[in-house]
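Chain and backbone:
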Amino acid sequence: MRREGREWSEEEEEEVRRLCASLVVFGFDSPCREANGHAKRLIAKGSVATILFGRNVESPDQVKSLCSSMKLEALAHGRKLLVMTDQEGGKVARLTSQESFT
């Protein structure tokens, strides 16, 4: 990468990648009790937020175990993890092309 007419150092490039990763909210397809490989990779790259959908939930104990595991994974990388939930069955507000969103 180039910045201000010069090549970025490896440290600068890594910092940009980490900052970009911190903007990513990740999800995953199935329920699990521990952070899966997908979650571990994204947390290691710098992601600090995840969202749980109905497809990720089996029971309160399973969700507690999953969230604890992912939070510990984030702490191992010196970060805190924000865990969000999607309200299944709630009203959906979509951005449409009629509103200038594509």
Summary: Strands lie at 2-3, 6-7, 25-26, 49-52, 82-85. The chain is about 35% helix and 15% strand. The two ends are 29 Å apart (CA to CA). The chain has one domain: 2-88.
